[in-house]
Amino acid sequence: MSNLVQTIKRVRAYVDAMGPDHIDLTDAQQLTTQLTATNTLLTELDTVFSKSAKDGTARTREQNKTIKDVRAHVAETRLADIKPTQVGRLVGHLMTAEVLLIKVAKTFKGVR
């Protein structure tokens, strides 16, 4: 099984585990931990996408856009700049990262 397939499966598992009770949105520690996990997964996706691009894997337009969005997010996100007391910013960044993971799961649903 390729790294891409394994990583997409982990994205799907993360997305499937999401729900209204998966995290306390007022708990800065939980938010920081979850945000770190989502950004680690997105960084791994960026790396896997870079490697798979070199092997000539054909991509749809939507997949290419999603890959571009992942790379932009990874390049622009600086978790060190967010103070643990800034719960609103943590929630916003977590929501952005989770929406992107949902988009990856949807766009790459045919990858098994």
Structure described in brief:
By secondary structure, this protein is mainly alpha-helical.
Order of helices and strands: HHHH
Helix content: over 70%
Largest sheet: none
- Unreliable residue stretches: none
How many strands in all?
0
Mean pLDDT: 87
Q: What Rg is obtained from the alpha carbons, in whole angstroms?
A: 14 Å
Shape: globular
Which structural class best describes the helix and strand composition?
Answer: mainly alpha
> With helices defined by DSSP (H or I, 4 residues minimum), what is the helix count?
4
For the record, the count of structural domains works out to: 1
How far apart the termini lie comes to 9 Å
State which percent range the strand residues make up. Answer: under 5%
Report on the structure:
The chain is mostly helical and 112 residues long. It has one domain (3-107). 71% of the residues lie in helices and 0% in strands. It has four helices and no strands. Helix 1 runs antiparallel to helix 2 (28-54), helix 1 (3-17) crosses helix 4 (87-107) and helix 2 packs parallel to helix 4 (87-107). It starts with a helix and ends in a 5-residue tail after the last helix. The mean pLDDT is 87.
